[in-house]
Structures are given as C-alpha cells and as structure tokens.
Prior knowledge:
single chain, alpha/beta, Rossmann fold, 7-stranded parallel beta sheet, 3-stranded mixed beta sheet, 15 helices, 18% strand, globular
Amino acid sequence: MATDLKVHEVSEGINKPLITIVGVLGKQGRSVAKTLLETGRYRVRGITQRHDSAEAVHLVEQGAELVSIPLDLGNKKDFVEAFRGSYGVFMMTPNIAPPQTHEFALGKELADAAVEGGVQHLVFSSLENVDKITGGKKFAPHFTDKARIEDYIRTLPITSSFIYMAFFYTNLMEFYTPIVQDDVLVFPIYLPKDFRAPFLDPLTATGPAVLEIFKNPDHYSGKSLPVIGDIISPQEMVDTFIKVTGKKAVYSSAFTKEEFLNHFPEFSSNETLVREIIGMSQYAVEYGYFGKNRDLEWSRQINPNTLTWKQFLLSTNWQGERQSF
C-alpha cells in the first residue's frame, strides 16, 4: 500500500505542468516561483547562477529545481535543454545597463530556444515601445528593446502573452533612497511631485498576474497586460510615508538631468544611463507610462490583494533605509 501511494505521488508530480522561469532570483522571477509553488499545481524550474544564495536555497526547499546558465548571449543550446519538458516559460531579460545594448539579441535567443525546446506558452515581461510612441524623441532602450522582443515573439509558432510592469516601489528602497538632512528624510524622486504614475511591488504583484495567464492560456493568448499596484504621485507617496511611519519627510525633484545628478552624483560616470533614466521619466510624463487602450484595472481585478503604496509600507515596515534585493 505504501509503495502504491509513493508511485501515485510521483506520477501526480510528473503530471503537474512544468514552468521554467528565466532569472528566477530576480524580483519578478521569485514572485512567480513562489506563487506557482504555493498553488501545488505546478512544478517550477528556475534558471540562475546564484545557487548558493539564501533565496536559491529557499526555493529548492519549496520544491523548485534550479539550472545554472549565464543569462548572456551564446547559450542557446543550454537554454533549449533547460526548456525541454516545460509547458510554459516565464521570461524576462536581465537589467542590461547602457552602454551595453544586447538585450534584444538575448531576448531573441531565449525566445528561439523556447520554441526549439517545445514550450507551449511563453509569458514575457515586456514594456512599451518608447522609440515608436515618441517618434524617437525620448531615449529609453530598456523599454523599447523589450517591446522589440515582444514583436519578435509574436512572429513565432508559440502561444505568447505579455505583462507590462509599472514603476517599482522598491526602486525607492534600492536605488533612489531617501537622504537624511537635519533629521528629515529627503525623497529624491525622478517624477514631478504632482504627476500620478503607476507603481507596484514586483515581489508580490508579478506572481498572481502570471498565474492567472497560465491558468487561462486561450483567454490571454496574444494579450499585453499592465500590472499595477497604485496610481500615485511622488507627493502623495511622501505624505503617505509620513502618515504610516511618523517620520519627517519631504519630496525633492530628481526629474531633470541637473536635479538627478545633484542627488545622485555617482551616476555621472555613465552618461548613457543617466540619459536613459531621464528619457524614461520624461516619456512617462509627456506620453503616459502605458500606451493608449491598455486595461489599467486588470491586475487589481484578478488579484484584489495587490498592494497599494500604503499597504506596501505597512507590510514591509520600511523606514526609509537603503535595502537590496
């Protein structure tokens, strides 16, 4: 009887759809892995080189399988093998900071590998084509290159769906951290103080969105879907931070190049990266972060537990200190 039960458990595990996650230890990848594993209905394989990290160990303890492949060009054969047997792939291209420009080539290689590996459904974390929308007036290649990858995926013989992530709350904790001046936290934010923009927590919002897509592949085939936690202005973010934490805080503009470098002089050595950050911010303000006719309510409708900025502050107990993820 015990032997029969064990055989049944193994068979049940094999019958669960396998989802392979590219960049499983990134914020989006971790969120997807956690959400899928918690359902008990999926097997998860993750691609990462950081096998010894605490996050990797935790994922393995939860039941994930990890494969070590560098997320770089020239590894297509390894990607194909990693994707074999997978029903689905959640794919994102890693942060490729200027002056490096190979994001599109890497995305194309990964997508081709998914097709060759027999994957049925590819979900890609994409963004708007800033170059096309602005007629080349705004420079934001990490948006445009993802859009070009999406366009390429749409030409392939594979079911595909796309999520578009809003600005990350975590950017303020990790990259644009408040500065303490005379016991006041100064928030240098890359948007005008009253401009309301879409934000989210990638660690909790990504997984439910991707799960919804994999559960309903026919419904979401070919769709591009924004993922949003809150639509809020920098001033409202600072005001909410004050109410939640009781700390003194003020907004300070980092919207122009001069303002940005005044707050973050360490970026001055990478002119192209600064140009990209400013171009992204200007694009969001002048053209809107998401393209016209996008469904801005979808992610909050399918996941009512999506965190607003206030809920994010309460759940993380963030007090303005620098954090890394």
